[in-house]
Amino acid sequence: MKDAQELAGLPPGRWLGRGLRALGLTEGGQVSERQLELLFGEGRHPDADRIERGLLDDGVDAATARRLTVLGQPIEETEARKQTPLLGVDFTFRPQASLVVLWALGDDHTRRVIERAHERAVATALRWLEDEVAESRWASGRGRARTPALLVAAFRHFDNRDGLPLLHEHCLILNRVQRPGADGDPVWGALDTYRLYQHVVAAGTLYTLTMTTEVCENLGLATVPREVTPGLRPVMEIAGVPEDLITWSASRRRRIEDALEALTDRYVKDHDHLPGDRGRHALGWWAAQETRPAKKNPKPLAQLLAWWRASAILCFGQAFIDGLLDRCRAAGAAIRARVDPAVDVALAAVDVAAVVFTVREKFSRRHILAEARRHLLETLRGRELTHGLDDSIADRALLRYSRRHTVTKPGRGAPTPDRMTYTADFPVPNRWWIAPAQGTPPRESSRYERARLASLAVQNAIRDARIRADTATEAATTTSTVSAPADHQDIEGKTASALHVVDHPGRDASLTPAQRAAAVHAHQQAAMPAEYLEGRTTDPATWLRTPKNLDRLAAHARAAEARRRAMEERPTPEQPADAVKPTDQRYHHGNRPDQCRGAGRNQ
User: Fold this and answer.
1) 39, 68, 202, 246: which one has the fewest Cβ atoms less than 10 Å from its Cβ?
2) How many CB atoms lie within 10 A of CB 189?
3) What confidence tens digit (pLDDT) does each residue in 468-497 have?
4) How far apart are the C-alpha atoms of 453 and 474, rounded to whole Å?
5) What is the rounded distance in angstroms from the CA atom of residue 96 to the CA atom of residue 7?
6) How far apart (Å, rounded) are the C-alpha atoms in residues 452 and 431?
7) Total-model pTM
8) CA angle 72, 77, 80 (to 5 degrees)
């Protein structure tokens, strides 16, 4: 392994995690091939060879000596029950495509900044998994214990299977941790890997938020949203990196999209309707597997960097590539001048709760926390944030805008907060149809699009109530004292010095309450990209009813209705063209196996 890494120009693997101390390993130390074979291949101590030799020299028999080097249950016992032993899971961390492009085409200083931010973001995500998520389970889940000490072997790779830039880190997490035994002494047991997988999205959003913030602060950059898949959450990319350059580095995605289009067409022919959310996910996975190329021999990083730069210069010109970082800094400076480094906690909590509820209906704290981190990245646009701000928003969203859905069974203890499920009572907008472009079939509005509309409606109701309350307070008082809005007083009274509690510390303290409320609205408006503001404000009751958007909405509705009718009235191959069912029969369905999955699609 060491020779292959040196030949490919890859750095050696590194040991990470608090669990290393129990095995005598040091964090940041190099991972050897024999250590990997023993730990992840046999479930034994990484220094088992030396330990076993010492035991044999002391007169211990071979079977006992080997058993004493095993961590937890021997894999032979698992294989005897005809089960495959799970000794590790692979968490892979990768930045956004625009950051990968800057890393691949930038100078040495830019690459060092991005790589250091990547390392710290990986370490932050792993620490969060240790502190908040990692648990050991035994006796079929009846026994559980927190185990804040993981063993991780991290390997960094630089390219994808096509040889194009893709900075990413493979973190092999050992499925063995120490927990307190019956006599109080530590024993080795298995991780609750299902719980790890449940929190993978929250860990990924923490990595993205941490890395993007550090890179933007160190290089003077900012982020903008990029819609990758219509109707789904946008990806916050670095401002100034053009779409064409991101597409240049995403050849695999282009192949997946082509294969997905063919699979979707086949699905429509077989089922006579477009796939739903779960169907789209399944087809996307199928397309990714069909287009997955075989691994190639790795090349040294210096050779890859030279090839990437030459390829980009051929496509976009040397002047464009040489001035890429300056262009990104100019775009970032314009955004930073327009967006203050502040967050309105009340509106953030509403947005997070409304989005998660509309998308999922029932949710846990991990879903709220992941959405809070997305909200911070979208609102601050790469500016530095106060530590713990994501937890503060998540706690407020659960406390004020959610209600508990989990019911404690008689005779059992109440579950921990991170195991409870919640729901909410936000109004859910009706579905609507969207006609994207000529020749493209109409699609139904996604849950995320409906969630954004629900969130904006509730946020504006809170703004209106806040302005009315503050205006009344301003008229009733003659003093110059400025009081916090009613929905901020409880938190501001506890920790008034925190950035995310004061919300807008840079504002002049002499502002009246009404002016403060208007400034909050202006800040949220400024945080939205310019392309989102065309013909509308953040108030959906305003932007939906402008003459321009009413005409646009009517045109989309007419086009979508015409395409829907054309698709529904299209004859099937089994029947002649004149044998189309009448309207009342087309809309009548009996009980079908897929009735729940396609409920309401013909309405």
Assistant:
1) 68
2) 22
3) 665 665 555 533 333 333 333 333 333 333
4) 31
5) 28
6) 13
7) 0.76
8) 160
